[in-house]
Amino acid sequence: MHTLTRDALALSLLPGVGPTEHRKRVTESGSAERALAAFDDAQVAAVRARANVYLARGASCGAECVLPGDLRYPVAFHALRSIPPVIWMSGTPALAGQRSVAIVGTRAASSGGLRFA
After folding, report:
1. If 0-12 CB within 10 Å is exposed, 13-18 middle and 19+ buried, where does residue 98 land?
2. CB of 23 closer than 8 Å to CB of 15
3. Rounded to two decimals, what is the model's pTM?
4. What's the mean pLDDT in 109-117?
5. Residue 1 has pLDDT above 70, yes or no
6. What is the mean pLDDT of residues 31-48?
7. DSSP secondary structure string for all residues of 12-79
8. In degrees rounded to 5, what are phi and psi of residue 5?
């Protein structure tokens, strides 16, 4: 497991850090690790521990956490207004470049997400 991936995932687990905030903090600080330094040490330790658990669980079922910039990160995602800072992939990454359909849901939709419902 790479600390770059763990820290990017950990940053995304912090309350109030969605895709836009994640990108802003990483851009301003230079890395997810440096962005995490702005938060309370105990809070950072907790989200890093959660990220480690999620990465281990993902690995146990063949899923990987992929970041923008990784060659496996789907090119089509870069057309989004706010690209996901981390995604989970399983299977054949090359298939992500083909035409596809996805159905995505949430149990706790944001107010912005509800506008389009």
Report:
1. exposed
2. no
3. 0.80
4. 67
5. no
6. 96
7. HHSTT--HHHHHHHHHHHSSHHHHHTTS-HHHHHHHHHHHHHHHHHHHHTT-EEE-TTSTTS-GGGGG
8. -65, -45
